[in-house]
Design a protein that fits this description.
By secondary structure, the protein is an alpha/beta fold. Helices cover about 45% and strands about 10% of the residues. It has an 8-stranded parallel β-barrel, surrounded by 8 helices. A two-stranded antiparallel sheet has the order 1-12. The chain has a two-stranded antiparallel sheet with strand order 2-3. Helix 2 runs parallel beside helix 18 and helix 15 packs across helix 16.
């Protein structure tokens, strides 16, 4: 039997040296872990080790037994993409126009409360990522940075403001006035919070703003000293719109959420705001139709990340029906459980204008501050572009043309 052998030669040292990556290793183990992360789920695991349990549970948790969020994730996992082959995908355009201006990805940062609880810089760190990547950041009424403070910190970022219609309409009007004077482009009216959802994790953890210093908290400080050091050595943690409030969150929610909010309040909002108005928390075709008739600029199909009505409608499953009913009249967005670029692609393929991300970027900011949020956008863009190329979609319009479907998988 003939044995084939390699022909030996002297080592090619210049070639070998050219293969070596000469970057100096980082001294920060955490920074290195974030840089190596290949998914947002990995960032979540890093984040879990960086912040106290009460903080991580607030981000990851949802209402009651958390069925709604699981179903939302299951819907994304059950998406099946259509694919077109033999198409030139050497050039991929991920940009989209939103209210007269182009953004580089069909992704918007959702309004999230208490952001300085996750990372001491807070909302400006996220808005800076939006500015760096030509995206849109939404500031929450429950934010720890005021509209004027955010505008001063990131003056070139596109900024939207999320509003709860409070029981005292004059307080709402005061916040709207500040957003307008601070150059915010659009208002997002959240309507799925007539009362607060029952969030068992937060109740068990005794979540308050600012955090109470109990004996249990002292032990938590010992386990997460850097987080606590950042908390104690930066400005007081409080809601910018409610400075001085130091009562439990449930009392604040009772002050903010108004069970009497109605469609009349949408008309009132149109009378005091002359820019785009989006309504967040739409969970039925009927409500979508009525809002379209009222002339709002857009709706966000949302179950509040599963944090309000448990076992409520799954936004991704509702999306195609809503788009068929109102998609030619107003913009239809979606949020909840968007954790990857493939999730983003799925929502657009099923008819959404764009997606809002919340938990995803909060995992990033808990993992490594602003760099962590940049990593989130990097990962989402990587997966989004890759999926576009593999399905033959060269721009956002072609994603919609090619489409996708949710597989009917029995439980």
């Amino acid at each position: 039997m003939k044995i084939i052998k390699s022909k030996r030669q002297f080592p090619d040292l210049p070639h070998f040296i050219s293969l070596i990556e000469w970057k100096l290793p980082t001294l920060s183990r955490n920074k290195a872990k974030v840089a190596r992360a290949t998914s947002i789920y990995e960032l979540a695991q890093i984040a879990k080790k960086r912040v106290p349990k009460v903080v991580f549970d607030y981000v990851e948790g949802s209402a009651l037994n958390e069925v709604s969020y699981k179903r939302s994730r299951d819907a994304f996992d059950n998406v099946e993409f259509n694919a077109r082959v033999l198409r030139d995908v050497s050039k991929i355009d991920t940009s989209i126009e939103i209210y007269g201006k182009k953004v580089d990805l069909p992704i918007l940062f959702s309004p999230t409360g208490y952001t300085r609880l996750m990372y001491h810089v807070g909302e400006p760190a996220v808005a800076a990522v939006a500015e760096n990547n030509n995206l849109i950041y939404s500031l929450s009424t429950m934010g720890t940075t005021s509209p004027s403070e955010l505008a001063a910190a990131v003056p070139r970022a596109r900024r939207w403001f999320q509003l709860y219609v409070m029981q005292n309409r004059d307080e709402s009007l005061s916040i709207i006035k500040q957003a307008k004077e601070s150059g915010f482009e659009a208002l997002i009216l959240t309507v799925d919070t007539p009362v607060s959802g029952i969030r068992v994790r937060d109740m068990k953890n005794g979540l308050t703003i600012p955090p109470r210093i109990s004996l249990k908290t002292v032990f938590a400080i010992a386990r997460k000293p850097i987080w606590w050091l950042n908390l104690f050595t930066t400005k007081k943690l409080e809601f910018a719109a409610f400075r001085g409030w130091d009562k439990p969150l449930v009392e604040l929610a009772a002050k903010i959420f108004d069970p009497a909010t109605s469609f009349d309040d949408v008309n009132w909002l149109k009378s005091v705001w002359d820019g785009p108005i989006l309504v967040k928390g739409v969970q039925s075709v009927e409500d979508a139709k009525k809002l379209a008739q009222m002339g709002v600029s857009g709706i966000i199909i949302s179950n509040h990340g599963g944090r309000q009505l448990n076992s409520g409608p799954v936004p991704l499953e509702l999306l195609p029906e809503v788009v068929a009913a109102v998609g030619d009249k107003i913009d239809v967005y979606i949020d909840g459980a968007v954790i990857s670029g493939q999730d983003t692609y799925a929502a657009i393929a099923l008819g959404a204008k764009a997606v809002f991300i919340g938990r995803a970027y909060l995992y990033g900011i808990m993992a490594d501050g602003q760099r962590g949020v940049e990593k989130v956008i990097e990962l989402i863009k990587r997966d989004f572009v890759n999926t576009m190329a593999l399905t033959g979609a060269r721009n956002i319009s072609e994603i919609k043309e090619i489409g996708a479907r949710i597989r009917n998988v029995s439980n």
